């Protein structure tokens, strides 16, 4: 979106940004688990799941279903030290609020960072 010319970007933000950030469905941690486990049953390939993983418990749950690994993006943008916290036994959840502002600005010339609207 940030590659739009200045006036077009301003119009997009004014008219569409709010609706782009609103959720059609409520956030559910680990929302791809069912699909990932079904795919795992259908193939011998390693399966790495993603999708709303915010806690060590949710990640361990994926592995207990036989998935090979989990992938993280937004939680690591919010807190790059999250895996280290888990290794040290800290079971706190990621503070990522799922606002998606990091993805909206991901193609800008600015460094990738959390632009979170606060903890939810």
In short:
With 120 residues, the chain is mainly alpha-helical.
Question: Can you give a write-up of this model?
Answer:
The protein has 120 residues and is mainly alpha-helical. It has a domain at 29-104. 42% of the residues lie in helices and 3% in strands. The chain has a two-stranded parallel sheet with strand order 1-2. The radius of gyration is 17 Å and the shape is globular.
For the biggest sheet, the summary is: 2 strands, parallel
What would you report as the Rg, rounded to the nearest angstrom? 17 Å
Helix-strand topology string: HHEHEHHH
Low-confidence stretches: none
Give the DSSP E fraction (strand runs of 2 or more residues). Answer: under 5%
Whole-Å distance between the termini?
Answer: 25 Å
Which shape, going by the Cα principal axes? globular
DSSP strand count:
2
User: How many alpha or pi helices?
Assistant: 6
Structural class: mainly alpha
Percent range of helical residues: 40-55%
Determine the mean pLDDT: 84
Main β-sheet, spatial strand arrangement: 1-2
């Amino acid at each position: 979106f940030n590659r739009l010319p200045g006036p077009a970007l301003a119009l997009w933000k004014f008219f569409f940004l709010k609706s782009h950030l609103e959720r059609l469905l409520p956030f559910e941690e680990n929302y791809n688990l069912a699909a990932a486990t079904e795919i795992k049953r259908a193939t011998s390939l390693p399966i790495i799941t993603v999708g709303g993983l915010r806690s060590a418990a949710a990640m361990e749950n994926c592995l207990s279903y036989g998935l090979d690994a989990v992938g993280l993006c937004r939680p690591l943008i919010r807190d790059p030290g999250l895996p280290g916290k888990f290794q040290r036994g800290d079971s706190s959840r990621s503070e990522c609020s799922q606002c998606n502002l990091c993805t909206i600005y991901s193609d800008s010339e600015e460094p990738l960072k959390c632009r979170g609207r606060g903890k939810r």
